[in-house]
Specification:
Blueprint (H helix, E strand, L loop, with lengths): L1 E4 L4 H6 L1 H10 L5 E5 L4 H7 L4 E4 L15 E4 L6 H7 L5 E3 L20 H11 L24 E4 L11 H13 L4 E3 L6 H11 L13 H9 L3 E5 L2 H8 L4 E4 L5 H4 L8 E4 L14 H4 L3 H17 L17
Parallel strand pairs: 1-2, 1-4, 2-3, 4-5, 6-7, 6-8, 8-9, 9-10
Helix pairs in contact: 2-5, 3-8, 6-7, 8-9
Length: 326
Amino acid sequence: MILVLRALGVGDLATGVPALRALRAAYPGEELALVAPRWLAPLVDLVGGVDRQVHADGLGHLGWSGPSPELAVNLHGRGPQSHRMLAALRPGRLLAFANPEAGAVDGPPWRADEHEVDRWCRMLAWYGTPADRSDLALRRPDPGPLPVGVTVVHPGAKATRRRWPVPRFAAVARELAGRGHRVVVTGSPGERDLAAAVARAAGLPADAVLAGATDVGELAALVAHARLVVCGDTGVGHLATAYATASVLLFGPVAPAHWGPPPDRPWHEALWAGPHPSADGPAVHPALAALGVPDVLAAVGRVETAAARRAVPVQASGPPPLATRR
């Protein structure tokens, strides 16, 4: 059995998909279990190839009662905490970045200046398991009662310094609605007031606010069938990449070279005005604050044109189900 640790969020899971697929291909007859937060379960189902999810919210003791895994893979971080969490299970072999403090001395070195997708592909390649960094697509879920063809504006982010100002998001939403877009505003339950403020300032109807009304699987379905996504450096942007939905992503303080969409896909555009010196406190980071409404609207025009010109549609169904992969 293969146990993989990636106990993080939406964007973290999405950027780990190529590595997960590589492990599935390398060990087709083995059970593959993924350690991830329970609330990510609907999204884990869309990855394909994962037999079982082990629920864990971050690092710490893992309630594991089964036999020691034959192989444990740390796709979570550079250690030492994540290394020790897996080592405590006494796996037959541990694949991880080198971290002498945690007793891991045979792995590749960690590089801070590296795209998150490439980081885990490189680690597996070091151990002889090649991964395709472009293998980012997720299975496209049925939208059910969710609206299709909408423009998703997602103003939230975990850190307030990564949130573009409400008046600017509202100005973009107002302009796009005026151009004929059906705009919806998404977010977590804790971001409902933020989403409502954007919608109100943009003159959108109350039912345009979907923040807190969707779980992560429904959010994925909404993005999969959307016309456009406008958001910051968040998991929603990674969902847009996974479904080839046209997107404009606003970055800061982290550069898109570390977390952005593939640069060879012009229907996704990452805007970044950095580098700028980091500022303390919750204020919007200068690299993000430097982006104006005209910058975003111009990028919208470019990504929609690129999406319309795309000659070969991205496969709609995503990876085949597990039953056909083994």
